[in-house]
Every structure is written in structure tokens, then in C-alpha cells.
Design brief:
In chain A, 36% of the residues lie in helices and 29% in strands. Chain A has 294 residues and is an alpha/beta fold. Chain B is mainly alpha-helical and 119 residues long. The chains are: A alpha/beta (294), B mainly alpha (119).
Chain lengths: 294, 119
């Protein structure tokens, strides 16, 4: 089992008069770690909730491992969604929740769960409502990873976790994924921290799919062009410019869509090319002003 | 580390090439596995694997089944040959182009280098 794949076509979800997802189509590659990025209210949690059959779609086609997930026991037991709340029973002991998880998740690994509890310094006899935000999140991570579901959906699970705990989470996620490959979708606003963990990226923006790409090419598609204003303008003339800055006679443009001979062209015009961190690219791409101009 | 403009896998491959060129990694020396590389640098294993595949295709690394990845014999020489060819296109040519912009005759550049270069 290398993980469930996902195919979504024209998925629409409405809550009353609000359209959370508007005819979106995307694929999630089986066995890969995909980053689901989007601003608040972009529809990330709605999309994940439909995949996990927590929420019924309004219309469209959703296939998880080839089947509609809604009221589908096989697909549901193989799909684990942990939302930012941790999705655990607050009033029951951690050990009780884990026993319940063990009953429902065929690939659950109790030894791993124990190791992770230790790592995050969680006492199995504690009831989550007594825990801090960060510890509650850490318990969500334990459930999410130890369940080893073929489709693991982690929605802002790091909230409240301090930096050392988050790094421990990334390390254990990578290690366990290497030992037990499966499909992982990681949604986070901490793009800087997670970008290198990702093989694929899916960006949602106001209920639509903005980008669907492999992470490396998306990041490499962005670049800054710096130099004399006139030269910069000539270089970016027929390109998708998402930001411009000027300082006296020097200008810097941020461009999406790198081309193979860019280095040579830039050198010939005395321009300097620089990288754009995925996070900045994301900020530019989801900026309403940018979108209006495109 | 890994904050350049090129795709991550290219930067990973470049770093290993640089280590082979400088002699930090010698022929027949074992290099980190994809797994070790991914977990050490918190990088997606598929991205790291892509870099290693490229290096195997270029005969910089080779795989010993069940043991790991090693620097191929002659890898440094092959990289040197390629780097020397690129040196003129990527280092010398821009200098000449810049000299032209500044109105410095190529002979002056050559004289400068003949007289001991940077002082």
C-alpha cells in the first residue's frame, strides 16, 4: 500500500448562501507529500472534510482510491483527518482515545504512538482538555501519524506547538513516511517551514484552485530581477510581474514564469536574478491586487 | 543552505558535485543515502532522490546494491573537464562583455592577467 490517490472534479460545496468551494478540480498524487496552501477562508478545511467524509458535497465528483468516500467504510477507515482542534475526545484519557483509534485504524501502530507520546512529553493518563493548546495539537499529531492511514490529512495540526515540537513533528513525519509510504496532505500557514518537505503543492484561493504543481518547479518559477530600471522593464516586458519595487534608478521586479535562457539573458543585460521564497510567491499570488492585474 | 534560485534537487546535486570537485568527497567514498539526506536536511525524499538519480546518470555517483551510494572512480576528472569548459562561458565571457561596456580593450585585460592578475 503506497497510499490513496484522490481525484476531484467540479466539486462544489455550499453552506446556505455561502459557496465554500466553487467547481474545483484537482488531483492528489498517491504516495506523495502534498502541501495544501491557501489564505484563511480559501476552502482548505472544506476540501479536506469532503475527502474524509466529514462533510457532504453539494455537487461534483470526488474519488478517494477510486471510490466516493461518503458513507464508504473502506475508504473512511483508510482516511485520517486531523483538524487544528486535534480532533480528539477532550474529556477522555489519551490512552482511551488511542484504544478507540486502534479499533478503527487497521494500520495503527501502538509502539509508534507510545514513542510519539514520549517525544512530545504527553502522559497517556491525561485528559486533553487539561492540556495547553500546543500539547493538544501534539496529541493530534500523534493520532494522525500513528494511525498510518493510506490518506493522511493534517490540517493546521501544528497550531500552538513551539518550534522544537514542530521540528520534531516534521522529522517524525518524514521518517515514518519513508518507512511506511502513504499519501499525506499537509496544510499550514508556515510555508517557510514546510516547503522543503513537500513534493507537490496545491493552492486554493477563495474557493478555487489557483496552483497545482510540483513544489520544486513552483518555487523555481519565481524570480526577482534587479538592475537599472530600463533594463529591468525590458526584461520583464512580456512576463507575469507580481510585484515591483523602485529605489532611485534601480528597480526590482518579481516575476512568475522562469525560462531556460534567463541566466544568460540577465547576464547580457547586467541584471541580477534572485530566488523568491515559496512563502513570498504565495503572498503575491493570492494578493487580490495581483490577481486583478493578471 | 539551499536558498538559491535553482530547483532544490539541482542545488543538492550541485553541492555534491562541489564536494567531489574540491576533494571533500573522494572516489569510492560512500555518500549519504537519500533517506539520510532527506531526514538530515528535512527535505522531501523524492526531491533528494531526484538529485541522486541525476548524479548517477552523470557517472558522478554509483549504486552498490543493498549498500549505498559511492563516488564513482574518475568522477572528479569528469567534473573538472565540464567545469573547465563552463569556466570560459560562465566566468570569462561575462568579464570580456563587461570590459567592452566599460571601453577596456581586451588586450588590457590580458596584460593585467599576464602581469600577475589581481594584486
Amino acid at each position: 500500500m503506497s497510499g490513496f490517490g484522490v481525484q476531484v472534479r467540479d466539486l462544489t460545496v455550499r453552506y446556505g448562501s455561502t459557496t465554500a468551494l466553487d467547481a474545483v478540480s484537482f488531483d492528489i498524487q498517491p504516495g506523495a507529500i502534498t502541501g495544501l496552501l491557501g489564505r484563511n477562508g480559501s476552502g482548505k478545511t472544506t476540501a479536506l472534510s469532503v475527502l474524509a467524509a466529514f462533510l457532504r458535497k453539494t455537487s461534483g465528483t470526488v474519488l478517494v482510491d477510486g471510490e466516493e468516500p461518503w458513507e464508504n467504510p473502506r475508504v473512511m477507515s483508510g482516511t485520517g483527518l486531523v483538524r487544528e482542534s486535534g480532533d480528539v475526545i477532550a474529556e477522555r484519557r489519551i490512552s482511551e482515545t488511542l484504544r478507540m483509534v486502534a479499533d478503527r485504524r487497521p494500520a495503527y501502530d501502538p509502539t509508534l504512538a507510545e514513542k510519539l507520546l514520549d517525544m512530545f512529553e504527553l502522559d497517556p493518563t491525561t485528559r486533553p482538555y487539561k492540556l495547553s493548546r500546543g500539547k493538544k495539537s501534539a496529541f493530534g499529531v500523534v493520532v494522525g501519524i500513528a494511525s498510518r492511514t493510506p490518506l493522511t490529512l493534517l490540517d493546521e495540526v501544528h497550531l500552538g506547538m513551539d518550534a522544537p515540537s514542530r521540528y520534531a513533528f516534521y522529522d517524525v513525519l518524514l521518517q515514518d513516511w519513508l518507512d511506511h509510504p502513504r499519501t499525506i496532505v499537509l496544510s499550514s500557514h508556515l510555508i517557510n517551514e514546510i516547503e522543503r518537505l513537500l513534493e507537490r503543492v496545491l493552492v486554493l484561493d477563495r474557493g478555487s484552485v489557483l496552483v497545482q504543481s510540483d513544489a520544486d518547479s513552483l518555487r523555481a518559477s519565481g524570480m526577482t530581477v534587479t538592475g537599472a530600471s530600463a533594463d529591468v522593464e525590458a526584461f520583464v516586458a512580456d512576463r507575469d510581474v507580481v510585484a515591483r519595487q523602485r529605489l532611485g534608478s534601480t528597480a526590482q521586479a518579481t516575476v512568475v514564469g522562469a525560462r531556460p535562457d534567463d541566466e544568460r539573458l540577465a547576464r547580457e543585460s547586467g541584471l541580477e536574478l534572485g530566488p523568491v521564497p515559496l512563502q513570498d510567491l504565495f503572498v503575491h499570488l493570492t494578493d487580490p491586487a495581483t490577481e486583478a492585474a493578471r | 543552505m539551499f536558498d538559491g534560485r535553482a530547483p532544490l534537487y539541482v542545488q543538492i546535486a550541485d553541492q555534491i558535485r562541489a564536494d567531489v570537485l574540491s576533494g571533500a568527497l573522494e572516489a569510492e567514498e560512500q555518500v549519504m543515502s537519500t533517506t539520510q539526506y532527506a531526514t538530515t536536511f528535512r527535505i522531501n525524499p523524492a526531491t533528494a532522490a531526484k538529485a541522486f538519480t541525476e548524479l548517477v546518470d552523470e557517472d558522478v555517483l554509483y549504486k552498490r546494491r543493498g549498500i549505498g551510494m559511492f563516488v564513482a572512480p574518475g568522477a572528479r576528472e569528469r567534473l573538472l573537464t565540464r567545469a573547465r569548459a563552463a569556466f570560459f562561458a560562465e566566468v570569462v565571457d561575462p568579464v570580456v562583455a563587461q570590459a567592452k561596456v566599460l571601453g577596456i580593450p581586451v588586450e588590457d585585460v590580458v596584460d593585467h592577467l599576464r602581469n600577475g592578475g589581481p594584486r
